[in-house]
Amino acid sequence: MFSFLTGGKEAQNESHLKNLILMARSDNDIDKSEVDVIMKIGKERGFTEVQIKDMLKSNERTDLITPENDNERFEQLYDLTQVMLADGIIEDDELEYCTKFANKIGFRKTISWMLILLILEGVEKGVDKEWIYHRCKHYLSA
After folding, report:
1. Does 89 score more than 60 pLDDT?
2. Which letter does DSSP use for residue 126 in this model?
3. pTM
4. HEC string of 75-91?
5. C-alpha count within 13 angstroms, C-beta hemisphere, residue 25
6. Using H for helix, E for strand and C for coil, what is the string for 30-51?
7. What is residue 119's three-state secondary structure?
8. pLDDT digits (tens, 9 = 90+) for 1-30
């Protein structure tokens, strides 16, 4: 019903945005700051504001489309972490969702935790995403 885009990359972007929405819902409360982060990421991935709002209203769930490479897996985990951090509170449910997501896209549990911690540390220090990516690169293929 809400499949706005068709094809490989577009379908992956839609799946990714829906995963971000599920992350925001994982603590049963979507905060305005989480919506703002989802809107920003959605627009960067080619969605209109109306499309993103429709996805936020929908309870429809699409199947996860696994990222094709380490860079895409990092991007998706980074974005999920951004949503988790948006309201300034890391809820247990959000952290659990993020970890389970990392496992589903191919990271072992221990590696998932390491990557999430490295991303959190980098964001807390205010360093850019590229620096965090290079710090995580060793773990991406593990």
Report:
1. yes
2. T
3. 0.83
4. HHHHHHHHHHHCCCCCC
5. 12
6. CCHHHHHHHHHHHHHCCCCHHH
7. helix
8. 344 444 577 888 898 898 889 888 887 878
Would you state the structure tokens that stand for residue 128, as one six-digit string? 């850019």
Residues 127, 41: Cα–Cα separation, whole Å: 18
Q: Which long-range contacts (CB under 8 A, 24 or more apart) does 92-101 make?
A: 93/26, 93/27, 93/28, 94/23, 94/26, 94/27, 96/26, 97/22, 97/23, 97/26, 98/23, 101/19, 101/23, 101/76, 101/77
Cα separation of 63 and 80, whole Å?
17
Tell me the average pLDDT across 77-104: 91
| Top-level class of domain 8-140 | mainly alpha
Cα gap 75→15, rounded to integer Å: 13
